[in-house]
Each structure stands twice: as C-alpha cells, then as structure tokens.
Design goal:
The complex is a heterodimer. In chain A, helix 7 packs antiparallel against helix 8, helix 8 packs antiparallel against helix 10 and helix 14 runs antiparallel to helix 15. Chain A is globular and about 80 Å long. By secondary structure, chain A is mainly alpha-helical. Chain A is 65% helix and 1% strand. In chain A, strands 1-2 form a two-stranded antiparallel sheet. Chain A is built from 15 helices and 2 strands. By secondary structure, chain B is an alpha+beta fold. Chain B has a domain of 118 residues: Alpha-Beta Plaits (2-Layer Sandwich), CATH 3.30.70.3270. In chain B, 36% of the residues lie in helices and 17% in strands. Chain B has 6 helices and 6 strands. In chain B, the strands form 2 sheets. In chain B, strands 4-1-6 form a 3-stranded mixed sheet. Chain B has a 3-stranded antiparallel sheet with strand order 2-3-5. In chain B, helix 5 packs antiparallel against helix 6. The radius of gyration of chain B is 27 Å and the shape is elongated. The mean pLDDT of chain B is 85. The chains are: A mainly alpha, B alpha+beta.
Chain lengths: 394, 207
C-alpha cells in the first residue's frame, strides 16, 4: 500500500472496510454499525476528559491561578482522578424522589447527546449515517436534552432542582428557536438538509481561500447567532442560570451524586461538543482545510482542530462574562437573537438573488449592520421598573 | 459601541492568561506544602509549655496553679498537681504538673490561658502543621509533647520572649537578694547567743 496523504485521510474508512472483511455477510450491517459507533463513543468522552483539564487550567490562568498541577505532569491525570472519585462516591437518591425517573434522567441525557453525533461528518467519508434530513435529526435529538433536564429536576423532589429545571427548560426552548433559525440560512444556500452535502458544498477553494459559509455577511452573523444560542443551549456561562452555583447550588442536578453526576457532566459537555461540531459543519466548512495548500493534512485532524478552537472560545467566554439575569437572558433571546435571525434569513435570500460582486457585499452588510446596531441599542435602553403593588397582600 | 464591554473583558482575561505564563508575580498561588509564607510574629495556633535549660521536665516553668485550667473557655486543659515540689523558674520550690494535657481539637486558640498565667509558663505556638490520622489520641497533647524550650520561644516570638526573660531575671535577682538577706540574718542570729526560733527562710510559697 502506498502511503499518500489520501491514505492517511481515509485511514479509518479503510480500516473499517478491512475489518468488515473478516465478518460473515449476514452480520455485516450490525458489525458496520458497531465499527462506526465505537470510535465516536471513545473519542468524544476522551475529548471530554481533556476538556475538563483544559478548562480548569485555562480558567485558572485567566484568574492568575495555576489550576490543577498535583496529579501527574501539569495535572494531566486530573480527569482520571476525577473519574475514580466519582465512581467510588456514594450514590445518594432522595427518599421522596421518583426513583425510576431519577435514574433514567442522566441516561437519557447522555444517550441523546451521543445520538446527535450520528449525523456529524468528522472527516471525509466519516459520518455514521448520511441522513438526507441530518440537520433536522440533530435538532430533534437535541430537544430530548430538555426532557432529561426536566426529568432530573422534577424527579428529585427538591425546590432547587425544580427551579433549576424550570429555568433550564425556559432557556433551552427560548434559544432553540433562534438556533434553528440561524441554521436556516445555510440550508437555504446549500439546498440540502444533509450535513455531508453541506460540507461538500463548502469544500472548494477560490485561490487559496475556502468557500466556507462563515465568510459571507449572513454567514458570519448566522455563526455568531448560532454560537450565542449554542452557549445558551449547553447551559454554559454566561447563560448558566439553570446551574447557578451561587443561587440554586447546581440547579436540576443538585440531588445527583457520584457517577450519575458525572454522567450529567459528560452529557453537558457532549452536547456542547455536538453543537460546536454542528457549527463547524454548517459554517466553518466541516472537515475541510482552511487553506488549499493545507489540504494534505487529514480531514479529521481539521475537524478536531476546529472543535478545540471553539472549545477554547467557550472557555474564554466562561472566564470573562458574568451570569445574565433571567430578564436579560429572555430579552436577549426574543428581542435580539430572534429578530436578527429572521433578518439574516431575508439577507441570505437577497444575497442569493443579487449578482456576484462588491455591491452584493455592501448591500448585505448594510442590511445586517443597521438592525444589529438598532436592536442592541434597544437592548441597552434603560428600563424603567414600576413600583410593584400587591393586590392581595395588604 | 455595542459589545465594546465584552471585547474589553475578553482582552483582560486574555492578558491575564498569557501574562500568568510570562510574569511570575502575577501568580498569587503559594505551592503550600513545598513553599510557605514566613510566619508573622504575632501569629498563634495552640498553647505550649515553656521550659528553661535543656531538661524539659526539670526546667518546666509551670507550677500547676491550675488558673489556666479554670479560665479555659472550652475546658480543653487538664492539670493534675504533683505531690512533691521542685524549684521553678525563679528558684523557689513549687509544685509541678504531674499531668498536663491539652486537647487541641477542642482548643479555640483564644490565648486566655496565656493572659492569665502568672508564671509565663504557657505561651502560644505558631505551628499549624499538625495533621494526624488519629483524631482522638493524636490531637490530645500530653506534657512532653507540649513542652518546648525557651530558645524555641525566642525563635517564634522574639520580642515577647525577651520581655518575659527580663521580667524573670528581675524576679530571680529579687529572690536571690531576699535569700541573701535571710541568710545574712540567719548567720547574724546564729552568731548571737540566743537565736530567734521563728526565723524563717524567705523561700516561701507566696509570690
């Protein structure tokens, strides 16, 4: 076999085909599914372990601390120590909790988080299922997360967890809408719901520059809106009201301990990786290289490099921004992100029908910049609060 | 400009992130077991018993007066008086503690025992590194464990220890002078044909 860049790029599909050769024909569909799923089940939890370490180190450095540095060199074995700790901890279930639902909630969360990876193209020819409604499937599965969060909050029978679950559900439903609307521009432009063909459409180059959708006025706005919504969807700072350590301790998973808590943690990070992966697929050209002369580097390396960049951005944001208030959160969703997503769809349509050239750029940028500034000014407007009167209290 | 605050904040955290790798003085973390801050002189943790000289038992200043035991708010001190006597720091024969124990799991480091001690025998230590895997026996300090030399006291609280030493030296000279006077009086009385039978040595219990 000749070791060309193409071989390295396709090493996983080739290995899978080679392994399938040993399996009898009748068992091949099952074996093929297992061989596709298992690497995802290994790679992303591993990435989760690395990310917890990166996050603690990064946040520490942003706060002029050292971060974990006791377990292994640079604290690299910290995830293992955490895993051992959470595995050996006592699993406490409140006596009044609904035991079945309490047990199922973390499982549903992790299962839903893993299912979303089914449609993410991790590399060239590296997707578990090439669904022709892949983006739709992703969002359909993503909404299961809300279910599991509410299951956890409700079944714990604790005020804090119920409060956290209420907040989480309100927040996730509010941000799901702008998230989906922000992706519609991509679907309009690509003319397909399949994640694989969306990436294929972005894989070409003009000179050395790629055809990523993020390099258009509506693409960059869509990307920004998508990332805001994704941050809120994954309950991360500054949208971490459902967890709110300082107010409601840990929100919906306050009554979880030991390995179930670790599962929640895992599910949350897997959800974050999945939405980041979708953002990469839709806006950042999926597995395609950022410059044509870098195309020799295997496609899956590019996917994970982009994923790590987005994770770093998430950590950076978390280290910077304070938590929003509930009304600020809702105002941002309904008064800024949602109108901008709708305007963005309009602009994407105009872009599609205008002739190529600088005029198209100018018109679309102006059409997006004006409402962006106006809407943010409206958000910044000082709100006058009324003195609250109580009808029944006096 | 909209979003200016967010950008400023991001720049600040980025400056901190990279700055912490460049300049060491940004990092305020102390790698505790390996490096420690220098102790300040007024620091205190738990009481200890001062002894003079090299023999911890012979030189112990405590005379088992039990004032500290009575004053201790959480009642963490246990003292049992000895039957016999030995000379104290200033040279007078005194009782000494047969048992002196402090339960540092109960002690609240209030320093009241130190304030009330008339013999400068109990002082506050600065040692805080006292972990043990036996939370009952390991935290109950007996007489031997509590006894620490006057040199050690000078090391941890130099100013205070110097003042105490000066006071003790003064007391010692006073006692010696008194003893001398008494000895002279006795000698004079012995020289006379009819000695007074009630002539007592000055080294009584009172102080």
């Amino acid at each position: 076999m000749i070791l060309t860049p193409q071989t390295f790029d396709q090493i996983f599909p080739i290995a899978k085909l080679w392994l399938l050769g040993f399996v009898p024909a009748g068992a091949q569909p099952l074996a093929s599914a297992i061989l596709s799923v298992v690497p995802v089940l290994i790679a992303f939890p591993l990435l989760f372990a690395i990310t917890t370490w990166l996050e603690r180190k990064g946040l520490g450095r942003m706060q002029n601390r050292l971060g974990p540095n006791r377990t292994g060199p640079f604290g690299l074995l910290q995830p293992i120590a955490d895993a051992v700790k959470s595995l050996t901890k006592e699993d406490i279930v409140p006596i009044t909790a609904d035991h079945v639902v309490h047990f199922l909630a973390p499982l549903v969360l992790v299962a839903a988080a893993f299912l979303a990876y089914a449609v993410l193209p991790i590399g060239r020819n590296m997707v578990i299922v090439n669904m022709n409604a892949g983006v739709l499937f992703f969002f359909a599965i993503g909404s299961t997360v809300e279910l599991s969060v509410f299951m956890a909050g409700w079944s714990s029978r604790s005020k804090y967890s119920l409060l956290g679950a209420m907040r989480a559900v309100a927040q996730m439903i509010s941000y799901e809408i702008p998230m989906v609307l922000a992706t519609i521009v991509i679907i309009m432009q690509a003319g397909s719901l399949s994640t694989v063909s969306i990436v294929d459409k972005q894989a070409g180059y003009t000179g050395i520059f790629p055809h990523w959708y993020v390099f258009t006025p509506w693409g960059i706005v869509g990307f920004a809106l998508f990332m805001i919504a994704a941050t809120a969807e994954s309950n991360r700072s500054p949208f971490d009201l459902p967890e709110g350590e300082s107010e409601i301790i840990a929100g919906y998973y306050i009554e979880y301990s030991g390995f179930k808590f670790a599962l929640f943690f895992l599910g949350e990070y897997l959800g974050m990786f999945a939405t980041s992966g979708l953002a990469i697929t839709l806006f950042l050209g999926g597995w395609s290289a950022p410059f044509s002369f870098l195309a020799w580097i295997p496609s899956y390396v590019w996917f994970f490099a982009k994923l790590l960049v987005l994770i770093a951005a998430f950590i950076w944001i978390r280290g910077t921004l304070p938590r929003l208030r509930m009304d600020q959160l809702m105002n941002l969703a309904w008064q800024y992100v949602l109108p901008m997503a709708l305007i963005n769809m309009l602009v994407a349509g105009i872009w599609h029908f205008m002739p190529t050239g600088p005029a198209r750029w100018l018109v679309c940028t102006a059409l997006l910049a004006a409402p962006c500034i106006l809407l943010s000014l409206a958000l910044k407007r000082k709100q006058r609060f009324q003195v609250r009167t109580y009808r029944f209290a006096e | 400009m909209v979003g200016e605050g967010i950008l400023k904040g991001l720049a600040e955290t980025a400056r901190n992130f990279f700055g912490s790798y460049v300049s060491k003085e940004r990092l305020t973390t102390l790698q505790y077991p390996e490096e420690r801050l220098p102790q300040i002189e007024a620091a205190r943790s738990f009481p200890f018993l001062v002894f003079d000289g090299s023999d911890w038992h012979q030189g112990m200043r405590c005379v088992a007066c039990q004032i500290c035991e009575k004053e201790c708010p959480p009642k963490c001190i246990l003292i049992k008086k000895s039957a016999d006597k030995k000379p104290d720091a200033v040279g007078k024969p005194q009782f000494y503690p047969a048992v002196f124990a402090i339960d540092i799991s109960v002690c609240m480091s209030c320093q009241i025992c130190v304030e009330v001690c008339p013999f400068d025998a109990i002082k506050m230590d600065v040692d805080y590194d006292l972990p043990t895997d036996d939370r009952f026996g390991g935290l109950l300090f007996d007489k031997h464990r509590l006894a620490k030399s006057n040199q050690y006291y000078h090391q941890i609280h130099p100013t205070e220890a110097a003042a105490v030493d000066a006071a003790l030296a003064e007391a010692r000279t006073k006692v010696e002078a008194k003893a001398k006077v008494a000895a002279e009086a006795r000698a004079a009385a012995e020289a006379k044909p009819a000695p007074a039978p009630q002539a007592q040595p000055a080294d009584g219990e009172s102080r």
